[in-house]
Amino acid sequence: MEMRRVVIVEGGADRKRLQKVLAEPVEIICTNGTVSPYRIEEILAPYEDHDIYVFFDADPSGEKLRTLFKRAYPEALHLYTERQYGQVETTPFRTLATILLAERFLVHPQFLL
Asked: What range(s) does the Toprim domain occupy (predicted)?
């Protein structure tokens, strides 16, 4: 059976960075800023039968979004970048690959070297 997963990120730069690392088709959705619980429901409605992953920056705005997602969608799995990198878009490819691999995503092997 095909695994159906969605990753929620803050912006387009985060999406592009993850797309480079992933070696499988994964829907990556951008919040593009502030969202409300209603907007979260709206964003996730088409993906009810998917595993939802939240991958936000390790900064105040990312933590605020993460808290909102934890309340509105507690089933979501949370991925964390290391605080030293702060943002998903500035996290080294190798670190992103390791984070994704830990959740059994397929990643391009060159990012693990």
From this structure: 6-72
Query: For position 28, what pLDDT does the model report?
Result: 97
Q: Which residue range(s) make up the domain with 36?
A: 5-112
* CB contact set of 14 (below 8 Å; sequence gap of 6+): 28, 30, 55, 57, 87, 88, 89
Average pLDDT of span 35-48: 88
What is the value of pTM for the model shown? 0.92
β-strand partners of 65: none
From 38, 23, 25, 93, select the one nearest 7 (Cα to Cα). 25
Residue 98: CA count within 13 A, CB half-sphere: 10
The DSSP call for residue 107 is B
Cα–Cα distance between 6 and 76 in angstroms, integer?
10
Q: What is the CATH number of the domain that holds 49?
A: 3.40.1360.10
